[in-house]
Amino acid sequence: MISRRDFSTALYRLSKAKGYAATVVLTLGLALGSLVAMFNLNYQILAAPLPYADEDQLMVGSTAWLEKDGSVMYPRVLPVSVFRQLYPKPSEHLSDQALFSFSYVGMTLRDLANSPQVQIAYTTPGYMRMYQMPLLHGRAFSADEDVGSHQAVAVLSEKIWREHYQADPATVGRTVQIGNQSFKVIGITAATFREPALTGPARVNDIWLPWDYAPGANASPGDVSGAHFYLAKLKDAGALQVFEQELRPQIQQKFQEAVAAIPAQAGRTARFHAEPLRQMMDGDSSKATLSMLIGSVLLLLIAAANITNLLLSHAARQQRSMSIQAALGAQRHHLLGSVLAELTWLLTAALLVAFVVAEGAYALLWAYAGTTLPRLTELGMDWPTLAFALLVSLLLALGFATLISRQINYQALQQNLQSSGKGSGVQISGRTRQLLIGAQVMLAGLLLICSAQVLLQSLQQLRQHVGFTSTDRYQITIDDMTPVPDASLPLEQRRAVYRQQKDELMQVRDILQQHPAVQTASVSNYPPISFDGYYGSASFIASPDSPTQLLFSRAVYTDQFYLPLFDIKLVQGRNFTAQEISSQALVVIINQALALQLRPDGNVVGQQLYSPDGSLAFEIIGVSLNHQLPDLWSPHETGRSYLTRNLGTTANLQLQLKPGMQIDKTAINQAMAQVSANYRAANIYSIADNIDKVRLRNYLTAAATTTLVLLSFLLAAIGIYGVLSYSVQQRRFELGVRMAIGARPATILRQLLGENLKPVCAGLVLAALLLAILWLGLRQTMFTVELSAGGFALPLTLIVLLTVLTSLLSVWGIIRKPAIYALQGQ
To answer: How far apart, in Å, do the first and last CA atoms of the chain sit?
Structure first.
């Protein structure tokens, strides 16, 4: 039983050993804080309840688009026309359903003078019911505004309402203009609404419109879209597989019927897949967060080994006071009570430091991982996290107390005063010291090697040149009011509308090239990397004789200024001419990756590529260098094509500004107004920032692994030095005798280093065995791990260097002085 006196006495003793107490508190606080933060992060992703009722019944439906040979072309798309047919007759396994889409082009509020860009979601009434959208004013969508009603109504977010409409309740009932359509505001969402992150954690929608107005809502049969989702709520959470098996053949049949008459599509299929809402929102983020949790556990184990040595050393220094207490009648449990009181003070202080460290970790995650990891806004001190922290602290306290109690020889303490204090009542045995060093080296080696492998891979990717220049380059998204041509119009009429759009935007380009801040300008559907990560696509066939062998490419529809603007190098051939752009000549520039698919040597200039139906033949006039920018869609460079065609619904301007110059939306809008009132600049994005968004996961990985490397190395250094220093102090008299009879300092240092390297080598061997087991285990999974020699050499060098330095530091205070000082215990 610990008494109040034990606590006051323990606090007094710690006040006399401030360095010891501070080291224990800070070491444990840092390690425990990182563990608490990583536990909370994984809890939010894997286990914390979503803010929706019956979350286990909520699911997201999509289809994998399969090639004729069964290979997956796109893992998550939606055949919109098929689901539009199925929507009026939902499955009997569902209690609610909704269609959902989002804007992937620039949209602005045209009723406001500053035309702020907004993110638009398109959905049906079921969305607002399933996710319990709270409203400050007005109402949600009703059944009268479901699919096919074409009711022009809107629900605004609280943020947009407050920032742009001065939080005026009278906004409900007014109209807002988005594109060329006016919408009546019927509701304002509450700030507490947490929408499901269906399109990634970075996107937050500002306005919800009826699904009828979504791009692609009237898609032709056979068209698929990655911007649409089917949302549903099951009556029974256990019926997910049954529901999936019910819809899969229906969707497959309807899709195959729709594409049967399209030569390039015939034979392809769409395989329906239903996944729980949580699984869809979290994606594969748990892989990254679990690895960070494992790293923080190893870090805590290293810290625990360090603290064990500090506690045992501190207990050894307290042996005289313990001997006095034992001589005066203190029993074993009295001594243990005193030890537990000290541990309580230390762990309480460490826990407070841990909470501060965890809050700092949350802030860093919000700042640098907010666009890649889900649910970061919900991080904070909650009851599960607090309970976890207290449980870990309790386990550490019990573990430390058990270790210390095993080192207390009560009978030796009673006899210690009689032998002038030269007994061994509390000492760390040589075997214990060896185990401490070996354990720390094993854990540090394991963590350092794993972290170094990941760190070097991340740094290698970050150092790679992306294949184009981004400095002073900007993407201008365009809000285009030009009415989308009806799908029922003849193809030539629809093309004429988009041809006029490109001609007008090229006039805007020419005007902007006269602006004093602009170096050059270009029009295209996308830059090399877009702010949202999306891209255009085009498929070709190498010969009309093989119409089933499609060649996929990321397509850019552009002009003759695009490649020079981004400094994209040509390894073969030439750029477009102004005449080819003006006439939309059937010429194409492809990248090396696509060229290698056509010929093993990549020499394809002058060859032909054909449209999937074989009706158009494009002459290859150039081959560009590959890009080196792995993204969400592909870890490797895919085929790319550059064409003279129309821009479509994703028209962008690309600007290269003169060094040190800036341009704003007002100047761009003035240039657009000289050509047509249909265009406005939605937003300006730096291409360099677009690259950073794609590389953010690499930046986060590099930062996290660097932190782990530094912390594990620091903790290992403190721990190994503490053990070696204690060992040397125990052998001070022995070393003094050896020096007195002629042993040179270098000889003593060499012998100590040889002794110290034995447990270090044992720890490294154990770490190697664990790594081998881990490697074999990963080979049986879907994980792919690339190993580098540097990832092994760097940690091993650091550990050996650490052993040499700590050995020198631990004995330097003895060997640098004459032997008499060691013999006298000075």
So the answer is: 39
Task: Find the range with the poorest average confidence among 355-369, 408-422, 553-567.
Answer: 408-422
Which of residues 66 and 353 earns the better pLDDT score?
353
Q: For position 413, what pLDDT does the model report?
A: 46
Question: Does the structure show a pLDDT above 70 at 302?
Answer: yes
716 within some domain: no
Strands (E), 290-334: none
Q: How many CB atoms lie within 10 A of CB 537?
A: 13
Which token pair is 343?
A: 């541990």
Residue 131 tokens read as 């996710």
Minimal CA–CA distance to 67: which of 280, 259, 229, 248? 259
- Chain-centre distance of CA 468, in angstroms? 24
Tokens of residue 230, six digits: 């089917």
Residue from 796, 803, 792 nearest 719 by CA: 803
Residue type, 757: L
Average pLDDT over residues 489-504: 84
Q: Is 817 in a helix, a strand, or coil?
A: coil
Percentage of the chain surpassing pLDDT 90? 40
Q: Amino acid letter at 314?
A: H
Spatial CA neighbour of 454 closest among 786, 773, 164? 786
Domain contains 298: no
686 φ/ψ sector (left φ>0, alpha ψ -120 to 50, else beta)? beta
Q: In Å, what is the CA distance from 552 to each residue of 293, 336, 591? A: 39, 72, 12
Look at strands 587-591 and 617-624 and give their pairing. Answer: parallel
- Give helix 687-730 / helix 285-317 axis angle, nearest 10°: 20
Helix (H) / strand (E) element for 175: namely strand 175-178
Q: What is the pLDDT of residue 317?
A: 63
Pairing of strands 120-123, 207-210: parallel
Residue 602 lies in a domain: yes
pLDDT tens per residue, range 457-485 = 777 777 788 899 999 999 999 988 777 77
Question: Over the range 723-742, which residues count as b (16 or more CB within 10 Å of their CB) and which as e?
Answer: bbbbbbbebbeebbebbeee
Range of the domain at 523: 473-693
Instruction: Give 683-727 as a DSSP string.
Output: EEEEHHHHHHHHHHHHHHHHHHHHHHHHHHHHHHHHHHHHHHHHH
Between CA 293 and CA 296 the distance in angstroms is: 5
DSSP 170: G
655: enclosing H helix or E strand: strand 652-657
CA distances from 388 to 111, 283, 347, 366, 393 (A): 52, 25, 14, 22, 9
Tell me how far apart the alpha carbons of residues 502 and 560 are, in angstroms, rounded to a whole number: 13
Place of tokens 């009826």: 210
- Gap between the Cα atoms of 68 and 55, Å rounded: 36
Contact in structure between 355 and 465 (CB atoms under 8 Å): no
Cα–Cα distances in angstroms (integers) from residue 401 to residues 284, 433, 819, in the given order: 40, 17, 38
| 32: three-class secondary structure by DSSP | helix
Contacts for 823 with CB less than 8 Å, ≥ 6 apart: 733, 736, 737, 740
And the tokens for 205? 């929608």
Q: How far apart are CA 87 and CA 230, in angstroms?
A: 9
Contacts 24+ apart (CB under 8 A), 791-798: 791/449, 791/452, 791/453, 791/455, 791/456, 792/449, 792/452, 794/448, 794/452, 794/456, 795/445, 795/448, 795/449, 795/452, 796/445, 796/764, 798/448, 798/713
Residue 581 lies in a domain: yes
Contact of 110 with 175, CB cutoff 8 Å: no
Instruction: Decide if pLDDT at 299 tops 70.
Output: yes
In the chain, how many domains are there?
1
What radius of gyration do the chain's Cα atoms show? 34
Its pTM stands at 0.75
